[in-house]
Amino acid sequence: MPVRALFIVNPQATTTTPRARDVIVRAIASDLDVDLVQTEYRDHAKELARQAAIEGYELVISLGGDGTVNEVVNGILTAPPEAERPAYAALPGGSANVFIRALGLPPDPVEATGAVLEALRTGSQRTVGLGRIDGPEDGRYFTFCAGFGWDAEVVHEVERQRRRGRRASPALYMGIALQMFLKGEEVRDPSLELEVPGRPLSKDLYLALVTNTTPWTYAGTLPVQPTPRSRLGLGLDAFALTQADALTTADLLRRMLSPRGVPPAGRGYVTWHNEERFTIRTRRPRAFQIDGEYLGHRKQVDFRSVPKALRMVC
User: Fold this and answer.
1) Residue 143: which of 96, 110, 108 has the closest Cα?
2) Amino acid 17: pLDDT
3) d(C-alpha 37, C-alpha 88), whole Å
4) What is the spatial distance between Cα 217 and Cα 253, in angstroms, rounded to a whole number?
5) Tens of pLDDT along 62-76?
6) Which residues contact 254 (CB under 8 A, 6 or more apart)?
7) Which PANTHER family does the annotation name (predicted)?
8) Which of 79, 173, 233, 258 gives 83 a disulfide partner, CB atoms 3.0 to 4.6 angstroms apart?
């Protein structure tokens, strides 16, 4: 019997056309017993994926960007304990698709569909680790990154621009990041501190990034790598700025865009590798994001690594 699958499609996905979506749906329906549903609001994909686990679907497929992936992952992993968690296949439909590309799938959604269908035929699956945040506001899994400070402010502003009709793109992200750096308000605020159990407290940090894999994100086709040793099969990595002057920041951006990424140690920053858990605090509420989604301004977030959390078809 064909695999029973729920196919969750984000109709607002920025890099797929209606024609491409039709091609993908037909290809999947030819191999699977598939039910198709489109998302209608924020966190709808989470609700649909959670219900898919409760109803006994063997597989959840999504077509969308990193935000859709995050919602589906959280839906699957927050299903009741008695529900058997379905496997997950993610198809790229956003501007970056960081987690999907980290799994080795093609960035083109049609090609990725072919790769996923081939993986289903051969039984190819991979169990991956995730990150999780816990705090007074909520608990949530993330697939590839989280950030406090400058990068989260950029994400917040991009979301504002998208609500006004702008299309998310690498150029929009980079333009807003540059504007904020030149203004300097959020960028030059050393109010963050990072604490790893059993290690000295790192204080007066301007920016803190947490990664579950590399790259942290993409600038167009170029991978941006503040933590190049980060891997889905290891614990969490982190990167923090200890200086925020123009020369130091420019040099670090150059290194992030280089093939090797930022070295483990150097001037103007600190890094952590393969950590099980840690906490980031700030003296005043700062912008916070996970997987490119703004979650509000926060004063403290606890992070932990969750090994072998999710079965991926890839």
Assistant:
1) 96
2) 80
3) 15
4) 12
5) 999 999 999 999 999
6) none
7) LIPID KINASE YEGS, SPHINGOSINE KINASE
8) 79
